[in-house]
Amino acid sequence: QSALTQPASVSGSPGQSITISCTGTSSDVGGYNYVSWYQQHPGKAPKLMIYDVSNRPSGVPDRFSGSKSGNTASLTISGLQAEDEADYYCSSYTSSSTRVFGTGTKVTVL
Amino acid sequence: QVQLVQSGSELKKPGASVKVSCKASGYTFTRYAMNWVRQAPGQGLEWMGRINTNIGNPTYAQGFTGRFVFSLDTSVSTAYLQISSLKAEDTAMYYCARDNTYGYGVDYWGQGTLVTVSS
Predict the structure, then answer these.
(1) Shortest Cα distance from B36 to chain A (angstroms)?
(2) CB of B94 within 8 A of CB of B112?
(3) Distances in Å between the alpha carbon of A56 and those of A30, A72, B22?
(4) Residue B102: pLDDT over 90
(5) Rounded to whole angstroms, how far apart are CA atoms B57 and B33?
(6) What is the rounded CA–CA span in Å between residue B109 and residue B44?
(7) What is residue A70's predicted lDDT score, i.e. its pLDDT?
(8) I want to staple A93 with a disulfide (CB 3.0 to 4.6 A). Which of A20, A34, A51, B3 is the partner?
């Protein structure tokens, strides 16, 4: 199972919106509405930000939103803030009943 | 509150074995599967597999079969990851993470256990 493809880096200024893509195949992202997104700050454990493509766990700001079209899922951060600077990973359920992570995206707030 | 507390860092020689523990508290241990995730230094997350904490059956990702074993001790709400015949490339942070209550994904993570393999 190959890792899902994410851009290595995305940047934006405070207040702007950015979108991170996560591309898989019909055997993972495209086949199920089971995509989640994680935020990881340096030296910390990841944190769940989005589950089931577009649902936010309690406590996650509504600046974070998720969507999916075909084999590509996306995470959008609106009103970018300094504390959003982190690594972000997508994850999908697969047709083998396993899970797979994306390659990861470093978000920089300019 | 839900907590996953992992065992401390390990320094091992090549060829040795290591067993990492993940003690859960704040919820019914057998209601949620436990996942294991590896992160090599400076690298991304890799899903290693998961274990059904109710019936104990594990699922391993490709690349994590043979030397990697997931196990449980439900009497103390603890999951274990054992790695045998350690290699330098096993040097990584290993996380346990609980299945999400409300949908796909994992919602609680342990703090991570750094395993260093060096002669």
Answers:
(1) 11
(2) yes
(3) 20, 19, 26
(4) no
(5) 10
(6) 16
(7) 97
(8) A34
* Calpha distance B68→B48 (Å, rounded): 9
| Residue in this structure with the two tokens 């019914």, named with its chain if needed | B28
Tokens found for residue B111 = 């703090």
Q: From the list B44, B59, B104, which residue is nearest A97 (CB)?
A: B59
Q: Which residue has the tokens 């700050």?
A: A41
User: What's the pLDDT tens digit per position in A5-32?
Assistant: 999 999 999 999 999 999 999 999 999 9
pLDDT of residue A1: 77
Phi, psi for B30 (deg, rounded to 5): -80, 5
- 3 state SS of A2: coil
B 49-108: CB under 8 A from A: 49-50, 59, 61-62, 95, 97, 100, 102-107
Task: Render pLDDT for B58-101 as a digit per residue (tens, 0 to 9).
Answer: 999 999 999 999 999 999 999 999 999 999 999 999 999 999 98
Tens of pLDDT, residues A75-89: 999 999 999 999 999
Question: DSSP secondary-structure letter at A3?
Answer: P
Q: What is the average pLDDT value for chain A, to the nearest integer?
A: 97
The Cα of A5 is separated from the nearest Cα of chain B by a number of Å equal to 12
